[in-house]
Each structure stands twice: as C-alpha cells, then as structure tokens.
Amino acid sequence: MPFNRVIAVVADDPSDINTVSRAADIVRDDRGHLYVIYVIKVQRSLPLDAEIEEQIARGEQVLHRSERLARLPRQDIDSQLLQARDIGPAVVHEAVVRDADAIVIGTSYPTDYGSFSLGSDIPYILEHAPCDVILWREHSSAARPVARTSRNGRG
Fold this sequence. Notes:
By secondary structure, this protein is an alpha/beta fold. It is 34% helix and 25% strand. The protein has helices at residues 16-30, 53-70, 87-97, 121-128, and strands at residues 5-10, 33-41, 77-84, 102-107, 111-112, 115-116, 132-137. The strands form two sheets. A five-stranded parallel beta sheet has the order 3-2-1-4-7, sandwiched between helices. Strands 5-6 form a two-stranded antiparallel ribbon. The longest helix is centred in the middle third of the chain and has 18 residues, at 53-70. The protein is globular, with a radius of gyration of 17 Å. InterPro entries: Rossmann-like_a/b/a_fold, UspA. It comes from Candidatus Lucifugimonas marina. Residues 3-135 form the UspA domain. Pfam families: Usp (PF00582).
C-alpha cells in the first residue's frame, strides 16, 4: 500500500529521531509528502491562540531539527506548529484535513506512577485515526523483563 501523505508527530522527545526517520523513509519509498507537526498543549486557563513564546520557540526548533533529519527535498516536506487543548484530537484532525495515509508517532518509555503508560493522547490517536498509525516506542532500561512461568503456574 502506498503512503503518499504521512504525518510525523514530534514532541521534543528522544523518539523524534526515529519517528521522523521512519516517516521520511516511508514517503521517500513512495515519492510521497511528509507533514511534520508539533502540537503545543495549551492550558485551559489560557485562550487557545495565546502567544506562548517559550513553547513556540521550542516547537519551531524541534520542527527545524526534524526537517534536517528527514533529508527530503523541500517540496516533499512541510512542518507545522499547532496549538490545541489536547494533542490526540489535534493530530486526528490534521490527518482528516490532510487526507493522510499514515500517522507516525513515537514515545520514550512512558511511565505513570512507576508503571508503563501511554497516557491519553496515543490511545486517542490509535482509536480515532482515519488512517494507519505507526507507533515507535523507544527501548528503555527501565523496561522489566516479563517473568516466565511454567504450565503449572510456578516459575
């Protein structure tokens, strides 16, 4: 299946390198177009279009770094800084608007209270995306090996 329009979601996370690289490889193979997006999560106490200069500067830096990482011709890549209350719905909306064939999103080894957790944005994207979703989860030394048990339930 050709992937002509792919969205790579970056978040200033170590996984961004592999997210952008994989997304660029996908569109390069099919001579497609890569859309790199960075979503600033705006607190509910602020207007949605608030000028959050520090976060905007950080997002622009991440997008420029991602464009360099992709190593695609300029006409094959677009980057966009978005502001939204929640990241998941913003990504899904962009996928609909751009008629995306795939979303590539990455994460480090996320934890919540010491346990592995994908939070709320990635599950939202996995559930609501109108296209294929490729999830890249970075390896972590914090990942615990799964205990194997014998058939009788003892180790």
